[in-house]
Amino acid sequence: MFKVSTLASIPLLIVAPTLMAEPFGHNNAQLSYRAEHWALNVERAITEDFYITGFYHHTDDIALSSDVKAKAKILGAGLMTSTNIGHMTEFYAGANLAQSSIRSWENGVKREDETNFYPSVIAGIKLSSSPEFEADFNVNHGFSDSQYTYGYLDSTSFTLGGKYFIDQAMALGLSYVWVKEQDKAISWDNIGVSFSLYFE
């Protein structure tokens, strides 16, 4: 079984010192935020067609029910593959293994803490017609074995986003994330912002 310390070391191992930002690049670290949800995601290319990922997510609201409050810390890593169609399109897909630590309350009464390992899969497409912009659409599904059902862990989510590359080192991002089980498809809480650093 993977240990937290093993997964935690992955983001540190896959970042290199030289900066280089460009669309479809897979050597980067990204910090993002949306509605009580912070995330650090790191990518590192290992071949022309494959790259590894490491991530840490902290969220204060993953419950689907109004009488349940749940917080989660999620640590994980994955293997991804990508294929370019010309210079403007990239298809990508992969799988991740994550560990979630969940604290939850129902009607104000604390429930037993949970720690689970579970896989997730993701597939998407990126589009770019210039070195300054990149558009991204992906679908993600987690297979959490949590005792309770949480929208953030167990659901299918759809993300539509874009990045603006400030220079060779940095990019700003804007995204919209819709979780399939959400009551409202349109919500300000689904909007996220991000800042990325790129590495050679």
Question: Care to give the gist of this entry?
Answer:
This protein is mainly β and about 200 residues long. Helices cover about 5% and strands about 60% of the residues. Residues about 1-5 and about 10-20 have low confidence and may be disordered.
Query: What's the alpha carbon Rg, rounded to whole Å?
Result: 17 Å
Helical content band? under 10%
Number of beta strands: 11
Number of continuous helical runs? 2
**Could you tell me how far the N terminus lies from the C terminus, measured between alpha carbons in angstroms?**
32 Å
Which residue ranges are poorly predicted, with pLDDT under 50 across at least 5 consecutive positions? 1-6, 8-20
Which overall shape is indicated by the principal axes computed on the Cα atoms?
globular
Q: Helices and strands: which structural class?
A: mainly beta
Main sheet: which strands, in order across?
1-2-3-4-5-7-8-9-10-11
Reported for the largest beta sheet, the result is: 10 strands, antiparallel, barrel
Strand percentage, roughly? Answer: over 45%
Mean pLDDT score, rounded?
Answer: 84
* H/E element order: HEEEEEEEEHEEE
Task: Describe the overall structure.
- The protein is mainly beta and 200 residues long.
- Helices cover 7% and strands 60% of the residues.
- The chain is built from 2 helices and 11 strands, in the order αββββββββαβββ.
- A hairpin with a 4-residue loop joins strand 2 and strand 3.
